[in-house]
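Q: Here's a chain of 158 amino acids. Please give me its 3D structure as tokens.
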Amino acid sequence: TGRFVVGGPHGDSGVTGRKIIVDTYGGYGAHGGGAFSGKDPSKVDRSAAYAARWVAKNIVAAGLATHCEIQFSYAIGVAKPISIHVDTYETGKLSDHKICEIINKLFDLRPAAIIKSLDLKRPIYRETARNGHFGRELPNFTWEKTNMVDAIRKEAGI
């Protein structure tokens, strides 16, 4: 994301860490442990979780798999994810590795790019405080959109 300027409690504090499982997938999928609420979208705990949802939904909507879990790992001071893990639970029409290659090619997963792609700097987070962050097709929940389906299908050759 650029320079690491503010560290410690001043850089990453607030009312966060309360409902991390119920706010996401209720134990159905893996969770990295980072909370969303109280964090602005520059924190990958929030923005990358939204991006993972967006990517996975598009992979499934494109017909590459019926189930898809995406995991990103980030390091401080490194804009791109240092790791992307795809698990289609053996439902993929392509290998998980090939799907990962498609993701790397089509999705810019740097935090600033995620913020831009999903338009996360708007005042939209009040809606996430009740009934969770995922699984609702609300206009402000841009991470629920399946706007990359055609590009994914083209890249996958299907």
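Q: Can you summarize the key feature?
A: The chain has four helices and two strands.
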